Structures are given as structure tokens and as C-alpha cells.
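If your schedule permits, I should be very grateful for your opinion on a structural question. The matter concerns a single protein, recorded as an amino acid sequence and a row of C-alpha cells. Could you please explain, in whatever detail you think fit, how the C-alpha cells follow from the sequence? I set the record out below, with my sincere thanks for your time.

——
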Amino acid sequence: MSPYLHHADVILLLETPVPWLPETHQLNDNCIVISLSDDPLYCQYPYRSFPNDISLTGDPNNTLCALLKKITASKKNSALIETKLNQYKKNAPLKQKIKDSLSQKSRAG
């Protein structure tokens, strides 16, 4: 996750109490963080300081299905989704190289 975190426009956290280490990972200044969980603010934790712009309370599976239905219903959103998908595909080889490199480093110890 770390090579991409700073470039993200939006981060969707699914039942993630500790999404990254703030000391070592910086977010894009304009990044929107969305938390989706039965308890997206993790109220049971005594201290939690992760940014959270939008909190969605609910079952992730049901909520994601409902959101996907809404998003894909709009032609405007379909064009944006297509653009982002093309950007992702364009960057996929670089992302795979980074994953492979990290995997090799972790195996090497």
C-alpha cells in the first residue's frame, strides 16, 4: 500500500482499525478517506487518530453492493470510472514491479 498512498484521491477503508502508520505514510492533501464498518469510528479504541472524512456504518458487503448500483447508474460516473480504470491499467506493470520487489525483499529477510 505504501507506494500508492500518497497518490490516492480517495481511500475506502473496509473494517480497518489501523489502515497505515501515520509516522511513515503521508496522504495526498486532497485525499478523501471513507471508512465503512459496523463501527467506522472504532469507538472501543481508547486512541485512534486516523483521518476520516466520511463514515459509513453498516455491513461492508451490502453497503458496497448498494453503492456500486448507484455509481454505475450514472453515465457521468461511468465515464469517470472508465478513465480511472484506464489509468490503473496503464500503471499496472509498475505496480506489479513494486509488489514483486517488496515480495523479494520480505523473502530475503
